[in-house]
Fold these 4 entries.
Entry 1:
Amino acid sequence: ISVANNGNGSAQVAGRCIAYVRPATRIPSALLHVVPMPAWEQRELVDIAEIVGGGTPDTNNSNYWDGDIDWYAPAELGNNIYAESSTRKITQAGFDSCSTKMLPADKTILFTSRAGIGNTAILRHSACTNQGFQSLVIGDADVYFVYSMSERIKKWAEEKASGSTFLEISGRQLETMPVNLPSLVEQQAIGSFFSHLDDLITLHQRKRLWFAK
């Protein structure tokens, strides 16, 4: 909350966004009644992000593996905010051999679409994924603002998912998710607020683990 009261306007955006973006977050009710701001616009996820699937090179072809291209599988994401480096890497020949796509750094939110729907991470280096993802390449929106909606997107995707063997959400389905968006300036303020808050949480978690040793 101290972050929200630093005088740069974050107090205004915090109250109106937290219930929408992170409904489980507890904040004083005073922040929910602040200076009115312009109405948020209802859009679809496809309006702000390209939904990109992945693919897997032939696992029996050694020429496709142990290269220098990051290639993610869903189990790697864990609880980290950022995806820095993949466990397995593929070669250029492996990349060219399958349907995986190169995803841009700092513009992509990895999103698992099966066997654990809705795990997310912001991509820090250009990479590709297997077919267990429907990643969000953000266009006309703030990346961290969209990332902060991860729980809401996850819940919506789980409700819409289908499949006989395991539940899965398709890219076409994910594109249609309704989202409410403020102006880009307000998105950036909200994204900055949550980025700072997440940094503080991570710092305190590390301190707790260090003192527990």
Entry 2:
Amino acid sequence: MSYSQGEEPIYNEITEVKAEIGRVRHGLAPLMLQLLFLILFTGVLLAFLLQVPKVPCTQDQEEIYQELMQLKPRVDLICRPCPWDWMFFHGKCFFFSITKRNWSYSLTACQEVGAQLIIIESDEEQSFIQKMNKIKSHLWIGLSDMKHEGSWQWVDESPLLPRFKKYWSPLKKRDHPEADCAELTDLGWDDDKCGTEKSWICKKSSASCSNN
């Protein structure tokens, strides 16, 4: 086949590109097969660990059982103290929501995942969530004075201790009758109308990971 001036270099470039695409596909195929094998092997391993009898019935099962027991410590390393989208701090798990809802919805959302709208129990926790607040902006916390105006209580009905009152923002409203729910701001805690939509913080105990 003959080419006019300028066509042959273009043809050669196209040929090289096609060859490179072929090499890339050829290189990806083994990688995808390895990944698929790893996923399938992990699934079979976990299923076997859950279902295999403690006393194997045959010699083949005995050998498989012993091999899987040797691999089990590696599987146990997968254990995390908190769910993947939670943060671990001082033995507790913290969830910082992305969506925004009112205070009551935030309270329920935490309860539905076995947690509480955060009760701050130490200066260390306050410092931790305050740093996170610089990323997440305003966040609901589990503090309100809905039952008695000016008498702030956590969601477990425990009173706000005097030593934590230092965390109120200097711009806090002076017990405005319509601002009954507490939020975390850049300057500390503030009160706002409970129907306002904000992100929120859930808190729960961390899981215990055991290699037994």
Entry 3:
Amino acid sequence: MDKFVLASGNKGKLKEFSELFSAYGVEVLPQSQFDVVEVPETGTTFVENAIIKARHAAEVTGLAAIADDSGLEVDILKGAPGIYSARYAGENADEKGNYLKLLEALKTHHEGRTARFQCVLVYMRHANDPTPIIAQASWEGHIALSATGVNGHGYDPVFIPNEHNCSAAEIDSEEKNRLSHRGKAMEILTAAMKQQGMII
């Protein structure tokens, strides 16, 4: 395997996946390169949504596909925004709109702001793959009182990981890849892919 399609149009995710897979000589192609339209995420869990996205990308492109479904769970909000993280502030919301809505939802909660990023990665060899590789990992932390930092994407400016006293948007990409939910899920995924002889 020398290339696969990433079932996402998110440039931040494409950059992270490309960096992580370049070590294996694998090229990660965005689904936009093949005019793949985003498929409705009708699942009720991260796993279901990742499978829906990977299957759709594999079907349209004829390539192996990898999909990521990830989001932020805030304990005091009973796991919200969860699977709706990307559209928390509405269907057409941008990343800043999403995290500003989160800060607003937590404005009366100065304590008990524990949260975690969750990531589920699904790798499908083809659209009818009956045994996709599924990897799941989380990144524990809490929600800051205000946004800081310019690196990363999504909720990074308001998420303080347990390992740091700064936001995820203030951590360099190498450190973030090592600590993050996506970085850890990628380690699990690549270990499974190595075991099955897909990458060396």
Entry 4:
Amino acid sequence: MGHDLKTLEELVELRGEGGDNAIAGRERFLIAEEFPILVDECDNSTHWIKRHAKRGRRYKQFICALAQNDTAENYGLQGDKDTLYSCFVLVRLGQFGRDYARTKLKDPQLEQWLKAGGKRRFMVDDCPCELDLSNWGATAIAQPENSGGGEKELRSTQDLNEYEQFILTWGQEHPGELLKARIVQQRCNMLKKDDPENIRIFFQSLADRGLGEVEGNGDRLGWRWSK
């Protein structure tokens, strides 16, 4: 971190003397894992994050600081929340995003939307976001005689969360049978105590991606596998 600070000061001087052309090709993106540990163990951590947050962008020195929550103390910014909330975009993943939707935004529907999307969905500041993972890690390409159907199915199943995968597997093992939320609760320990409405959200999510189809409405909604 001390070296990064020296580099930043060098870039400030170079740009002051020669303009943007003088620092061309010196762009960097720095990732600081487990920032609370760095705060405890590195004397430069607070100065590092403040200097890069307030001046680094102008000199193409971008940073990503990772922690388990977004308290200012975790980033060495005690008493300086303004720096955290004005100079950074806060990305909340997984359970942290769902907790934020429920406790801070008071939006249970958003919480369920995030849950249904698995790792594809998260929060960026107060905005819900979803990544297109249809091509993520794809290693197989459908042969021409398959007319693209196999490839489409491959892409659709790559980003399923563990709950959706359980439902899909059940459906493929019981083709044509209508799956209800209570059956999922009986067969899947992970969802045994979950709200049936959450399970129906998984049903709809699968159907929206062309994996099976839903039947019925409200608490009568069910899902079945169909190609």
